[in-house]
Design goal:
homodimer, about 325 residues, alpha+beta, 6-stranded antiparallel sheet, 6-stranded mixed sheet, 7 helices, 21 strands
Chain lengths: ~325, ~325
Amino acid sequence: MKLATYKDASRDGQLVVVSRDLSVAHYATGIAGKLQQVLDDWNFMSPQLQDLYDTLNNGKARHAFPFEPARCMAPLPRAYQWADGSAFINHVELVRKARNAEVPASFYGDPLMYQGGSDDFLGPCDDVHVASEAFGIDFEAEVAVITGDVPMGASPAQALEGIRLLMLANDWSLRNLIPDELAKGFGFLQSKPATAFSPVAVTLDEVGDAWDAGRLHLTLQSTWNGRRVGLCEAGPEMTFHFGQLIAHLCKTRNVRAGSVVGSGTVSNKDWRHGYSCIAEKRAMEAIEHGKPKTAFMKYGDTIRIEARGQDGQSVFGAIDQKVVEAD
Amino acid sequence: MKLATYKDASRDGQLVVVSRDLSVAHYATGIAGKLQQVLDDWNFMSPQLQDLYDTLNNGKARHAFPFEPARCMAPLPRAYQWADGSAFINHVELVRKARNAEVPASFYGDPLMYQGGSDDFLGPCDDVHVASEAFGIDFEAEVAVITGDVPMGASPAQALEGIRLLMLANDWSLRNLIPDELAKGFGFLQSKPATAFSPVAVTLDEVGDAWDAGRLHLTLQSTWNGRRVGLCEAGPEMTFHFGQLIAHLCKTRNVRAGSVVGSGTVSNKDWRHGYSCIAEKRAMEAIEHGKPKTAFMKYGDTIRIEARGQDGQSVFGAIDQKVVEAD
């Protein structure tokens, strides 16, 4: 099934069930008002939502209305955890190669992951407010999962069982603030502003065989100012699958329901796939020509991120955002 | 007023108002069930809680019952954000001096802060489950605040206005996992297991003059296995006050209601104050004798963290935890 959260001027919005083709939606009133409630009590609530979803897809839901992604908050407008991996080691290799740095051997066995802010996620069509273009504004197209409860010490296989929903993420990054934060070693705060998520989050069955052993085998399209810049394969080159990422996260603590875990920038070795963040394009340019030439984003720039299923239909709806100057 | 959350087998527990002397409590039923609700709507709900608090302190609350810290969850059992500063630069100086490393000049103007996991906080008397003593188990006695909404770009003075509640924190650390995570630069995940908080969170007026310009001028007592090891002043040597820490956090993003921000280990230049984490004791030993001799915590060890007000009474109740082997 497909779930979204409609804006209603509250902090958590209103849960809606969305039809498979993303054409119509229906409030989940009577089942649950918020997605977090469903995640807190998944086994009880998800079958009820599934029934409503089936009714909606059959055209039998009485109070269905046209689905408008622009009215969506993030599926979880705020979450108790957001941990973002850097699971495509090619991304790390590319960025390091561009600055003649080695990739430490440990990076191939031990995932890179940072803890992000989860108190203020952006909806898929929300503007991105940035105080200065000099911060080096960049998008990062990613796949993300929302988990149920995963106990401390769970294996990657056990962790996979804890995945409830899939979505896309735009992990906004302020590149010029990253070097100083990396040097401090304490992770990212200022260089990672609010993250945006796709209009809908979907259960694993929605993507069929495209979900395989913790990887999503779909193509992530990134369109910057109307120009297609990335058609990246999200599956085969993901060095650490989602079960491994979650197991990394829960090695010394429990992961609780509603945790959001990201893949990091989707990245392919073959440059013909393009790029899922501008930092990669700049790295390619530095490797080829000695220096980057593509600038980061400016106010007014737009970025659209989407994935189509094996049937050619948009699975999650599109993240479609504009960069604007913060007040 | 003083607020706590009682265990009731739910994820968020039940909000209670606690008397000033911590002797009795009263469910906040009819006002709010959860502390997050109050933070989401502070101006409307906090006066109602204050009324109940006054009634309770006057001995007139009809359904008051004895307050038992052992029945408490963290005041916020799960939060949308936990960002922990390292605001006592003396702590950083000490640890670095012990390994003959310099403190970068930028550390005196730009706070160190990491984003922590906030999906699974520990109650004040909950056992701490750790899979191996070899992880290097350590406590960290800290002061923490819970914020309301603080908009992106707020100044330190504006950020101070966003502070709603004060509490104590025990930021459990697994010291032997830290070097590898520091080297990766992405911050702490495995080396920072679930954090514990004091039984009650209190409004600023509860501490009177001890709250001054973003610093809490009280003494933090740490008692390890029944032995007093720290009597550290939490106020004067805090290099960055809480307004500065929150302003650092909200430079590029909004900080939303219910965010928890920590001071980092409370640390004093004068070693006679003792220590608020074992890592500092080991650093002192390394500086004096060439190597550390105090071992980190073992299974069965206990740690008690408390602060007394100007009247000698416990302000927040005590964090009082035992380290146990994880299943």
